[in-house]
Amino acid sequence: MRTIGITGGVGSGKTEVLTFITTYYDARVVVADIAAKELEQPGQPCYRKLVEVLGNGILDAEGLIDAKTLSGLIFSNEEALAQVNAIVHPAVKRYILETMEEERKKGTEFFVVEAALLIEEDYQDILDEMWYIYVSEPVRRKRLKESRGYSDQKIDSIMAAQKTEAEFRAVCDHVIDNNASIENMQKQVANLLAF
Prior knowledge:
The chain is 55% helix and 13% strand.
């Protein structure tokens, strides 16, 4: 089983890459953000710890962790952010390693992990290869305005918090140039998965 990490800046089209892989290949894809949300549900590993550390104020009327409240809290408080990361990131990594092992036993051909913090969390140490989805900044900005309705200010703040193109390229084994058509991206992905 080949294990692949996919990363790239906001608006680079990682979702389109994952959709193509899951549609046409024997692949299991784990998106770290989705895994984290599942692990924050009641009865899951992160729920109780997050409530203990941050208090009941992060819960909504049904007793679920309110994502908006949580993100508002951690982005205005570095200590809270560090506490949340110390709880969530190791739990997500454990989940990914366990899922990877299950898929290996099933004989799945490709296991793909998508995460914004693949490099920061040292996923290159547990995956066979790392792919960087590259799109120029002007194209990313245009896509984010059109598809998500983001303002320039919001795009600036997200991009400022992410790694630079040089930092992504320094760690990743392969680069998918996703500036052009979807067909062009699909051809690059197919070529990489064929070798």
